[in-house]
Design goal:
Blueprint (H helix, E strand, L loop, with lengths): L13 H16 L5 H18 L13 H6 L3 H7 L1 H14 L8 H59 L5 H6 L1
Helix pairs in contact: 1-2, 1-5, 2-5
């Protein structure tokens, strides 16, 4: 096969590649007009129409549902009988589309920084939560001690007043 370099399809030219492979498959299966050859031809033509973005009988999506619909066949013809053409279709779709999840470095760096910030903020939140619990316990202990000291003070004042040794200045001011 002497084809010039310009006629050889590039890696992203899925329609031309599908046409070449489809013709090779149809030739390999024979052009005797059998049902298999007609189905292969219909699947290949549908593949080309979908890859170039000119569907006639389907929604134009590059899926295993749209492909046989575009060919005018039931889906099981593609998924069970012509599995080679199905695999070819998926390979061409994958080669046609840009690499999945290609994230620019700036976006990746921003996402990494956000992840680090989130980790740092969660650690700070957990630290503050434990500090708040500690402070609540300290306040509780101080309230108990304060209550005990007030009771002891009241008891001590009562004892000292009963002895008459100490004058009660608080009662004196009120009167």
């Amino acid at each position: 096969m002497n084809t010039p370099a310009a006629a050889v399809p590039g890696p992203r030219d899925g329609a031309a590649l599908a046409q070449l492979v489809g013709e090779a498959l149809a030739h390999a299966q024979g052009q005797d007009g059998t049902e298999d050859a007609a189905e292969s031809r219909a699947i290949t033509d549908a593949m080309v129409r979908l890859l170039i973005g000119a569907p006639l009988h389907s929604d134009g999506k590059l899926t295993v549902v749209s492909h046989p619909a575009e060919a005018g066949l039931r889906r099981n013809k593609l998924t069970h009988k012509h599995t080679g053409l199905k695999d070819l279709f998926y390979a061409l779709v994958k080669a046609r589309d840009p690499l999945p999840e290609t994230v620019p470095e700036s976006a990746r760096a921003r996402a990494d920084k956000q992840q680090q910030d989130l980790t740092r903020i969660r650690a700070e939140r957990d630290d503050l939560r434990s500090q708040a619990q500690l402070l609540a316990r300290i306040v509780q202990v101080l309230e108990i001690e304060n209550h005990q000291l007030k009771e002891a003070n009241t008891n001590l004042r009562g004892q000292l007043a009963a002895q008459g040794a100490v004058r009660d200045l608080i009662r004196r001011r009120r009167t």
